[in-house]
Amino acid sequence: MKPEESTLLTIVAESALERSLVAELDRLGVSGYTISDARGRGRRGRRSSGWEHSGNIRVEVLCDGETATRIAQLLREQYARDFAMTTWRQAVTQE
Amino acid sequence: MKPEESTLLTIVAESALERSLVAELDRLGVSGYTISDARGRGRRGRRSSGWEHSGNIRVEVLCDGETATRIAQLLREQYARDFAMTTWRQAVTQE
Amino acid sequence: MKPEESTLLTIVAESALERSLVAELDRLGVSGYTISDARGRGRRGRRSSGWEHSGNIRVEVLCDGETATRIAQLLREQYARDFAMTTWRQAVTQE
């Protein structure tokens, strides 16, 4: 385990999506993720009326950049129309 | 929603400040934030005796750099004297 | 409190390690950290059979780069053999 450059992808979404998101990550072969509960206010999905202080989850995936791109693309295609969701990536160094 | 450079501002503060911080973010026109519960030990506010494993919140705001600067400045001016609070920013890519 | 470059070290580990990790951080002279509860799936420790949706903690330490290196090294030496744990660092600007 020497330090290596990785990508940290963070997804904030409605709690109701937890099972579904975990299944998608499994299908994409993601080996690790961290989920914590959160609340907040976010950008509207294209169809959604936005979400206000509802139960959210915050999912973190430590992966390579290509995997992050595949996850983000899948989320845009499968969820962005119907669900409020915010996703961002950062470069990190895994220790 | 194409990838765009954004700033992630993270604020760790005492839980008692949640309503107040949310009101400040609203006043500043911030459209989205994520709050999760946390505990920990932090730097002392200028007047505070520090905080030890008390109930904290962790607030994340995804915004542009200018907004992050305005939020950080407001927090310094309005809260730093009386409350323990730690704030940091990172460059992220919003997907 | 002018903006200054810092390192954010994030540690995801089994909840059972919280007391132990906090004691290590104290010994290393770390002045602040934030802990939140999480769940997830992670990489296996060298001996562990991995961890699946168990109770995890997410520990964030805002420190200088040298301290982050000392913490990461200690975690590798003392915990990596027996416990599932993921650690990463990022450059951040403390406000």
Number of domains of chain A: 1
Largest sheet of chain A: 4 strands, antiparallel
Shape of chain A: globular
> Largest interface, by Cβ-Cβ below 8 angstroms: which chains and how many residues each?
A-B, 21 and 18 residues
CATH topology of chain A: Alpha-Beta Plaits
* Percent strand of chain A: over 45%
Query: What is the SS-derived class of chain A?
Result: alpha+beta
Under the CATH scheme, which class of chain A? Alpha Beta
Helix content of chain A: 25-40%
- Spatially, the strands of the biggest sheet of chain A line up as 2-3-1-4
| Total DSSP helices of chain A | 2
Rg of chain A, Å, rounded = 13 Å
Q: Alpha-carbon distance between the termini of chain A?
A: 7 Å
Oligomer: homotrimer
Low-confidence stretches of chain A: 45-49
Rounded mean pLDDT score of chain A: 87
Number of strands of chain A: 4
CATH architecture of chain A: 2-Layer Sandwich
Return the string of H and E elements of chain A: EHEEHE
SSE topology sketch:
The structure is a homotrimer.
Chain A: E1 4-14, H1 18-27, E2 33-42, E3 51-63, H2 65-78, E4 85-94
Antiparallel strand pairs in A: 1-3, 1-4, 2-3
